[in-house]
Amino acid sequence: MTKDRSGEAFDRLRAADPAAGLEPDLAALRRAVTERETVVDELAARRRRPVRALQVAAAGAGALAIGAGGFLLGGGFAATSVASGESDGGALPAMTLDSGGNSGREDEAATSGEMAPEGGMGRGGGSRDMSEQAMTDSSYMPWPGGFGRTVFEQSGLSAAGTSSKAYGFDAESVHNEDTLSALAEALGIEGKVREEYGSLVVGPRDGSGPSISLYADGTASFNFHDPSKDPWFCAPDKDECDERDLGKAPQGDDAIEQASDFLVRLGADPADFELEATDESEFGSTDYSSVVAYRVIDGQRSGDQWGVSFTGGGVQSAWGSLAPFVDLGEYDVISPAEAVERLGDPRFGVSSSSFPPGWMGPAGLERTVEDEFEVPSAPAPGDSFGWPVETVTIVSERLGLAQHHLGGGAVVLVPTYELSAADGRSWSVIAVTEAHLDFRGTLTD
Asked: What residue ranges do the domains of the chain occupy?
């Protein structure tokens, strides 16, 4: 019998969904499905293919296909403070590099599937219609007058190269039964470790009790959910949900403190993260709250994060990734001036530009309301064809780290330049010299 998914109960559950508003990584899902269709040995395919699509499908509202740092991290690489609200004086913002289907970010997230060569530069952030893809491609700048090409120049940037560290995620060291058993014990989840669809699981999957899953991806991501901590409990053998009064969820600094305790409980060090709590208005109710823990490395957010959701009963769900960082050593890095040249090199497929709030493109191309309803006249014979080109002058740079996904599923943090124009727009491009790049990847690798 199909359960009714309408009504106040499900409206409130949807409002509390930390993944609300996020778009699925359709490019990664499509690639995973295509791989599955071409494999004869289904069991072998499960063992070797990425499971990010399974993460989205199996983990429910609390599962985000995002990564974060470390189970039993050891010495770690970060020295940060725990902060509430906007990061103020803390770590620098995360950089993005891989970001999906055009010529070259949001993971974020990042953590990100690609439609570009898996062994080379990719772009995550999902598959959209062609016009929207063009809008995010740094070669096509959105403004009211239409699309145009962009060329880059620089002013005042250094022509001297340097070096920078790179890091890898050691997922293999923590993706095992011992790790998951330790997590389950810390969370009070009973049962034996079992394998399901390429992931390791402890606890029931039908919502009758708490469970935790550990996935075989490049960051060893996990998902935890405790239905007993949900104010709306939907038993698997019933067609209706029961509302329970669990009290007010922790808010603000109280939520951050409890999230820090939760990280410690799982063997992570809160000093390796910056923690931010959601505002009560984001959920429209004090029944729920959540904290995002951004993992920091070398004074910058790494693009990895944990999420912890609360109700009055405690931690309702959590997700993140357990792979510790490994130091890959120093890499030669090109100069900022050469990085600007890469913005025009199709081999590097630069990531999409970020735009300052309210940016509307070149002012001269803005249309009036009356213009919107004018019927365009036909071109005359011999007329030139519009091919607008914008010249962007890069005036500043930031050298940092961005996540990059390799062909075998491994994830690394590579030296990356964020290049900014005077109007606040910025672009990212990989910073290591060509000696450190393997251009042999193909779309079918």
From this structure: 51-88+172-327
